[in-house]
Design a protein that fits this description.
5 strands, 3 helices, Ubiquitin-like (UB roll), 83 residues
């Protein structure tokens, strides 16, 4: 699965993406976050405040409890404001 990191997250993590084979028990976004945080300290730092974390699955905004079944890509980014 392709995991993408944008904006401040990309800066903290030091890269824009990972390609990862996920274990079967990683079935939703929350489990994915826990898996990523456990394997990489920079991701744990970037994902420290989940209230400031948005997610998209296959380029569609999702929630942190969304299932990953059929997902090819998950993107993480901070909240976006505009004007």
């Amino acid at each position: 699965m392709k995991i993408l990191y944008f904006a401040r997250l990309r800066q903290i993590i030091g890269r824009g993406q990972d390609d990862i084979a996920l274990p079967a028990q990683v079935a939703d976004v929350g489990a994915l976050i826990d898996f990523l945080k456990a394997r990489d300290e920079s991701i744990a730092e970037a994902f420290g405040d989940l209230r400031a974390l948005k997610v998209a699955i296959n380029q569609k905004h999702s929630t942190l409890d969304a299932p990953l079944a059929g997902a090819r890509e998950v993107a993480f980014f901070p909240p976006v404001t505009g004007g």
